[in-house]
Specification:
alpha+beta; eight-stranded mixed beta sheet
């Protein structure tokens, strides 16, 4: 996510505002679901490719397998970090081609506060989901990837959780970097990857000092020591989230997030805001 560093003025938030956010966050957290709650099935996969005939199965029973994967991201103007373009893309799960896109250029008046990113970005993304629902309901995503964390978050409730609960949508958090959470550090994960070397395992479960499983590190490209970090957002298990991310990777970053990022940056350029 191309967020800019917050200015000093943005960090001068009243205790009252933070207390309100904490109360809202704790209330939403009570609604969080961390297992599979959806009617579709994961596409049958063999060596990263769908089995021959899987597309025929989708055509004969459109509700049987996952068909539409969403990706959401915001890109910010370098000249004015309060100006952003938010983009939501929908990809066909079998081809990873973008079948629909909605974007919106906004001025964000909510400050960035570490641990509370969702209060700045979730309202914008919810508007895009609502716009998609009203204009192309048949293409509404069955699962959404968010450029931000889910459970793998200092407060245990990142943007993917917040957005997932409010939208009542299976949601997966995708992090490009790992910040210190429950004893987990990016340096520690790097050491783990280096120790495993050419091991056939490309997924490493991330368990914090508390003993809680917070997510997983995935080497999405062969031999990479720069994993991506997957965590549950809402209405999906970590195991299912990992499988969906794996089938969505052409490059290091899952295609739904990569396309949302590319197109949100293009949106800024088209409006002369990059």
């Amino acid at each position: 996510m191309s967020t800019e560093e917050p200015s000093a003025s943005e960090n001068q938030n009243s205790p009252q505002l933070l207390n309100q956010w904490i109360e809202i966050q704790e209330s939403l957290k009570k609604q969080l679901i961390t297992d599979d709650r959806f009617s579709w099935k994961l596409p049958p996969i063999c060596n990263g490719q769908t089995y021959e005939g899987a597309q025929d199965d989708r055509d004969s029973d459109r509700g049987k397998f996952l068909k539409y994967i969403g990706g959401a991201d915001l890109s910010f103007s370098k000249a004015d970090p309060s100006i952003a373009c938010a983009t939501l893309v929908v990809l066909d799960a079998s081809t990873l081609e973008v079948v629909h896109e909605v974007s919106n250029t906004v001025e964000l008046r909510v400050p960035y506060v570490p641990g509370f990113l969702a209060f700045r970005e979730a309202p914008v993304l919810l508007e895009l989901l609502e716009k998609l629902k009203n204009t192309a309901l048949q293409l509404y995503p069955q699962v959404l990837m968010v450029d931000g964390n889910g459970l793998l978050h200092p407060r245990g409730f990142g943007l993917a959780c917040h957005l997932g609960v409010l939208a009542d949508l299976p949601t997966i958090g995708i992090g490009k970097n790992l910040h210190h959470v429950d004893g987990l550090t990016q340096h520690g994960v790097r050491q783990l990857l280096e120790a495993n070397g050419d091991s056939c395992s490309d997924v490493f479960t991330l368990m914090g000092d508390s003993g809680s499983t917070l997510g997983a590190a995935l080497r999405s490209t062969v031999g990479s020591l720069k994993p991506i970090f997957i965590s549950v957002g809402h209405r999906i298990s970590l195991a299912s989230a990992i499988e969906i991310v794996k089938l969505s990777c052409r490059y290091r970053i899952p295609e739904p997030i990569r396309q949302a990022d590319i197109r949100s940056r293009d949106c800024l350029r088209k409006h002369g805001l990059s």
